[in-house]
Design brief:
Blueprint (H helix, E strand, L loop, with lengths): L9 H4 L4 E4 L3 E7 L9 H17 L10 E6 L9 H7 L6 E6 L10 E8 L2 H4 L6
Parallel strand pairs: 3-4
Antiparallel strand pairs: 1-2, 2-5, 3-5
Amino acid sequence: MKDKTLTRTPRSVASRPRVVQTMGGLVLAGLHAPRFEGMELAEQCRAAFEEATTLLAARDLTLSDVSRIVCHIADADEFPASFPVFRQFFPSTSPVMTMMWLKDAPPSVPKIMFDLIIGLPEEETGGDARA
């Protein structure tokens, strides 16, 4: 029997971002620079957020609507170089951030990839604020 541990191949990691509707809002999953080969982490971060801006605008949303970022990075030492990029794209808001280090990631995958979580107001989701 094959081992069915959760792994991602470089092809699945570098696929196009997708928008997933959830009960509480939207998730822009698998967001990364469209062409990441040869780019530094900060450049990839900037390209990913530019792509996010376009995808969110198509849904009448902006990065200020993002409540949480799940950040997958391949090089923890290079990550601080992306801080000015975060400040550029999030000048007045500070979404919650979860960082996941993809230790020993192959060079064929992006150095940085995001899942952006957008919680929609209760009246748009039809949900109840009580847990």
